[in-house]
Amino acid sequence: MITASATKVITGNHAVSYGVLLSRVQVISAYPITPQTQVVELLSEFVASGKMAARFITVESEHSAMAACIGAASVGARTFTATSSQGLALMHEMLHWASGARLPIVMANINRALAPPWSIWTDQTDSLAQRDTGWMQIYVETSQEALDSIILGFKVSERVLLPTMVVLDAFLLSHTAEPVEIYDQGRVDEFLPPFSAPYRLKPGVPQALGGLADPGVYFEFRVKLQEAMEKAREAILEEGKRFAKLFGRFYGLVQEEFMEDAEMVIVTAGAMAGTARAAVRELRNEGRKVGLVRIRVFRPFPFVELRQILGGRKKVAVLDRNLSLGHHGIFYEEVKSALYPMAARPLVVGYVLGLGGRDVRPEDIQAIVDDLEMREEAPEIVWWGVKR
Amino acid sequence: MGSDSMQDLPDAPLSWGDTRWNKTGNWRHMRPEVRERAAPCAKACPLGNPIPKVMTAVSRGDLEEAARLLLERNPFPAITGRVCPHPCEVGCNRRRYDEPLAIRSIERLVGDWIQEHRTVYFPSETGKRVAIVGSGPAGLAAASYLRRQGHRVVVYDRNDRVGGMLVDAIPSYRLPRSVVEREARALEQMGVVFQLGVTIGRDVSVEQLLSSYDAVLVATGAHGERRMGIPGEEHFLGGLEFLRAVRRGERKPPGRRVAVVGGGNVAIDVARTLVRLGASPVILYRRTRKEMPAIEEEVERAEADGVEFQFLTLPTSAVKLDGYLRLVVVRMQLGERDRTGRPRPVPIPGSEFELECDAAIRAIGEVAETEFLPREVLDDQGWVVADKFTGATKRAGLFVAGDLVTGPATVVEAIAAGLRAGRAIDRFVRGEALPVQEKPLPTVPLKEINLDYFPRASRVSIPELPLAARCKTFDEEILGLDLNSARGEAARCFSCGSCNLCANCWIFCPDAAIHLDGDLPWVNLEYCKGCGVCATECPRGVITMKEELAREGAVA
Amino acid sequence: MRTGTLLWAGLEVPQEEYLHPGHLACQGCGAALAMRLVLKAVGGDVMVVLPACCWTIIDGPFPYHALRVPLLHTAFETAAAAAAGVKAGLEVLGDTRTQVIAWAGDGGTFDIGLQALSGAAERNEDILYICYDNEAYMNTGIQRSSATPLGAWTTTTPEAHPEDRPKKDLMAIMAAHRIPYAATATVAFPDDLIRKARKAKGIRGTRLLHILAPCPPGWRMESERMIKVSRLAVATGAFPLFEVEEGTRYTLTYRPAGLPLKEYLKLQGRFAHLTEDQIAVLEKQVEARWKELLELHARTHGTVEDIPVVPFGG
Hints:
The complex is a heterotrimer of chains A (388), B (556) and C (314). Chain B has 19 helices and 20 strands.
C-alpha cells in the first residue's frame, strides 16, 4: 500500500494503472492490445504481488472483458478494464449493456486509429464512435490527469450509476513519461470509499437484472439514463471540487486558458491541447487575442459551459483528430450544435487533422489561427495537413 | 406494466416481482384429469382386491400397509394366496406384455405375514346377533365381516372342525390345515363363537335360528355328490367322500389303478391325491382338456404328477370282477354348444371299450343340499332363490351365500359371496336399506400404460417342492416367496389406474403446477398450460387429458 | 412453499421449487423443465447468468422474474465470460459459497458463445455452465444452429435442403479443454440429470452440463411428447448420456436400448421429410458415434460391460 505521496516519472499508461491501484478496484478483466498493454501489465504485477486485492481475469477478447466486468459489477464489485481501438469496437455491444444495467465500470481507452489499413497511432474516432453507448467520456491531457481521472471516474460513476471511459492518446500520452504525483492510499480512500451498490444482484435475493422490457417501460429507462447523464455534469463539478480540496488539482468539464479578451478560440481535446497551448502562448506573446478551450468531458457534453465561454467571441476553430465519415469532425459537430441556440454565435470552423497519429506541431496550430482569422464563412471541413 | 411512471421505476432494470401474477391456466385447451380407474386384475378379482396398491406397498417392503389394504377386501389372504385360481393374473395387463405378475404368491406372503403379526381387533358391540350356518369360506368371510362391525356372531357347523371344504375337501398339499386353523382361531379371538357338531335341520331348525337371531346366513355349500345313473354305480366311490377320508388320515389307496370320472376340481384333487397315495389314477372326462372346468394350473400339475387323462370318454357301466372293476366306456365327440356355452359331448355309437381298474371314483359334480331350508326360499326344483348380490331371500332376515346358491365354485367366489351377504346383513340388522351393486369403474387397458417405464422382466420363479418329492407327500407343494423376491416381483406391477405416487407427473411438469401432497396428484389449474406431459408420462393411466370446457368469452 | 423431498426412481428430490409457475415458456417446454430440475439439484445458493435465449423470454418481462434465485441477463455471446465476472465479483466480496450458473441455449453455446466458453473453460473459471440444447434458434423462430442434427428441418434449412452437417461435437470440444467435469443429460432422466448436476456442484473449476431439452414447436411435435422424445433420444442412441472427467476419463451412463433411430425421428415433424436412405445414413452416424464413445469408455474403465442398459420398456 502506498502510504505516502510520491512523484514518479511514469507513462500515461502506468498513471492509469496507479489510478486503478489507488481506487482499490476489485475485479479487472482485460485483453491486450497495443498501445494499452502497459496498463494491464502493471496491473497484473500489482495483483500478482498482492499490492492489489483484486481478481484479474485474463479473458480471451475485449468483448468478454467487458462481459466479465458487467458480471462482476452486477454483484457490486468495483471493476476496471482497459482497451483501445479495435478492442473498443469489439466491446461496443457490451458498452450499451454496462450503462443500461447502470453499472459504474471504469475503463481506460487509449485512442488509436481503426483499421484498415492497420494503424496503432492516435486517433479519437474509436472512442467518439462510442458516444451513444451511455458512457461518460473523459479526454485527458496529461499522465497526472489520467491517474486523477480514474479515481474521479469511479467517484462520479458510482454516484450517478453510469460507466466512465477515460481516454488517452496513443503514444503521445500513453507512452510518454511525465512526473506524476502518486497519492497516498489514505487520502484516496477518504475521497473514494468502498462501493455500496444501490442496485445489485444479491445471493438469496431473487431479482433479475436487465430482463425483457416491453414498449410500456423501455422508454422510461432510457429517459432515466439521460437524466443520469445530466446529473453527471453537476456530479463531475462537485466531485472535482472535493478532489481539488484533497489533492490540489481541479478538473471540470472544460478547461479554458487565455480567454479573458480572446476573440479567436481554439477548441480541442486530449493531448493536442498541450500542443495548442504552446502555440496559443506564443501567439499571445505576439499580442494576438487567441484563447484555448479544452473539452475534457465529452459525455455528458458541456453545452452550458461552451455557450458561456464561447458566447460573444468572434471566431472558433475546432480541432478534430477524428472524423465522422459523411459528416464532419465530431467535436466540431457537437460544438456547433451547442452554440446554435445562441442569438450571437461566433463563426465556428472545423479543422480535421492528425488522423492516424499524423504529427500536429505548434506551427500547425498557429497556421490554423492565421487561417481562421482570414475566414468570413465556415466551409464544411478544413482538412489540415493532407498531402494533396 | 405500461402504466408505470418514471418515479415508480428503479434506476436499474432490476425485477421486483415474480411470474405468479401470470395465470397461464388460460393458455390451456386441454385439461389434465386425475382419476383413478380399475386395474384389470382387481376387476377380475371376485373380491376386488386393491392389487395395485398392495403391490406398491409390497414393492416398498411395507407389509403392514399391504396387509391393511388387502384386509379391506379379503379377510383370508393366507387362504386365497394358496388356493385362488387367480383370475387377477389372467387379467393382469403385464400378461399381454411379458408375463403376468405372481399376484397370488405375493398375496400369500402378505397373508402369512398377517397370520404371524395379527393383532386382535375388538370392535364396539352393536348388540345385534347373527347366526351363520356353515363354516366354509363363505360363512367364515361373513363371520369375519359381521364381527368386525360389532355384531355377535355364532357360526354353526355340522362338522367337528371349522373350515368346511377348506379342511375337508381341498387336499393339504394345496392348503395346509394349519392355515385355516389359524384363521379360525383369530376369529374366535375376535369373539366369533363356533358351535360345531350341530346340524341345522336336525338339531336346530332354521326357524329356531330366525327367531333367536336378528339375521341368519346359510352358507352350507354343495356337498351332495351327483350320480352318473349307470349300472354298477354302487362300485364307485364319491370324490368328496374320498377326499374327506384322506384329510382325516386315510392313507391307503382304494386300489393301484383307479379310474376317476369327471373334469372338475374335485376330480383333479382326487387324482392328485391318489398319486400321493401311490396309486395310478386315470381321469375319464367326456369332453376335451379345453373344456375342463378344473383350475387350469391344477390340471397342468396333475399332468406333471403323471395322472393319465382319457378325454372324450364316459363310463356307461361298471361290473365288479374278482378284485377289480371292469368299466365299459364309450367314446364321445363334441356336438353343439349347450346352455353353458360348452360343446355338448355326444357318444359315438359302437365306440365302447373296456377299462379295467382296481377302483373307481366319481367326481362329476356337487349339488347343494337345501331340504332343511324353509320352502318359501326354494323354487320348484328345490334350488335356493336369493338376490344374486346380497344373498337376501324372500324370508326377511334369512340370507344365503356360497356354493349353496351357486353350486360348486371357487374358494374366492365363496368368500366374495360371504362378504356381500355380510354387508347386506349388517345393513339389515341396522334397519338400513340393503346395498346395491356399484357400477364398476372403467378399467385401464394395456394401451394406456406407458410401457417406456417398464422394461420387460420375467415373472419371479415361485419355489416349490421338486416334482419327485411332491408326489410322495401331502406337505404343501408350492412354497412361499421371500420378501426380496416378492418386492422385486411387486415392483413389476404397472399399477394400472392406481396412483402409486411415482411422482412422474410432478417431476416432469415444466410449469411446476403439479403437487403431491395427498394420495393423488393435484394439478394447479391456475397455471397448468395443458401441455399433456403429465398424462403421457403417467405410466398407469391415472391422468388423462380432457377437452377444456369452453370458457366465458372463448369460442366453443 | 413445500419442503421435504419426494422419491423419484429411488432418488430423493426436493419439493422446494426454484421455478415459479406463470413463466412464459411454451407448453411442454424442455428448457423450462431443465431449469426446474437443475435448480432442484443444486439448490438456492446460486446466481444464474443468462445470455439471449428462449429463457430470456421465459423468465418473464420486467418487473417479473420466474426464478427464486438472482439472475443476470446478458448478451448472447457472453454467458461464460459474464459468469466468470460474477464469480470473481462474489469472491472478492467474500462470497465463496454461491454457485454461478451460466445458463445458455445451443446458439449461445455452440455458436456465438463458444469463444467465451472456450476462454472460461481454458482458464478453468469456477462456473457451472449449462447448455440447454433444443438444437436450433428456437426463440427467433427455429433457425439452424451448429447443434442442429443432420437431416433436420429448420426455417433456414428447409425441406428442399435440410441440415447437411452433423451436430457439432460440443463434448469433444469441452473435453479438449480438460475441464474437470462435463456431462450430457436430458429431461426424461431426471434422476441422472440431478445426480450429474449435484456432482458438478461438488467440483470446483469449469463444469459443463449439456442438456438435451426438447422443443415441441421447434421439433414439430405435440407438447405431450416432450419427455417421450427425450427418452427416445437416449434409448435410440441419438443423444448418448455420458460424463467426461478431466477431459480424458469417459463414463457412459447408459447403453441404448437397441431401438431403431426411426422410433426417435418419427415423433418429430422436423425429420418427417427424410427418406429411408437418409435415415440409414443417420443411423450409421449414430452407430459410429456410439462406437467412438464405447472406445473412450473402455479406455477409461478397461471394459464396456459395466454400462447399464437404459431403463426403457416400450
